[in-house]
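Hi F.,

I've been meaning to write this up properly since the lab meeting, where we talked about keeping a consistent format for the predictions we share between groups. The idea is simple: the sequence comes first, exactly as it goes in, then the structure tokens exactly as they come out, then a line or two of notes. No screenshots and no reformatting. I'm using this chain as the first example so we have something concrete to point to.
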Amino acid sequence: MQSDWLFVVKKVGVFLVCAAVIALLTSLLFIDINGFHNGEHESSLTEIAQELILLAIVVIHGLLLRNPALRHSSALIGGFFLCMLIREMDFAFDIIHHGSWLWFALAVTLMALIYAGRAPQRTLAGLVGFFKHPSYGMLSAGLLTVLLFARLMGMGTLWHTLLADDFIRTVKNAVEEGTELFGYTLCLLATLSYFHTQRGNDAQVAQLVATDR
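Output, unedited:
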């Protein structure tokens, strides 16, 4: 009975922490619009938060490269999110040449695929473990939010029809970027959960090895 209560308390606690993180990051959109009146520029807090979240996800999967069992799958997953980061920072790559972000993203994709292809069985096993992890559901929800829902909600046709002569581009951008930020936050929370579990597994393995010695 006590273990059941602890389980419930733990799950409620995780929910509250996730809610607090989402609320905190969403407040950046309010600051951009109400404080800085900067709801559509690349320098907005919302845009910067999106880029930092993607960077954090890439770094986390970089740390998982130290685990031989997860090394190849993490390179593939981390490479995917690195491509998303490059796309988000297309304005920086435009300094080199307009649209040059695509070539950098393709280079990262190629390197990740080559590295993962060096050990296909390990890559497959790592991906299966990742897809089976409880956090994958949240990650999927985050990616669907960013790649599909935010794009559909940000369609100019929808907002021109809805607002007609009162159309204000900042409104459309605020909804789209705010939705993207929510999706990226879900991806970050899912990645942290996955990383925490894998770190716990590594610690257990190390303890068993030490005991055998």
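Notes:
The chain has nine helices and no strands.
Residues 203-213 have pLDDT under 50 and may be disordered.

If this format works for you, I'll send the rest the same way.

G.
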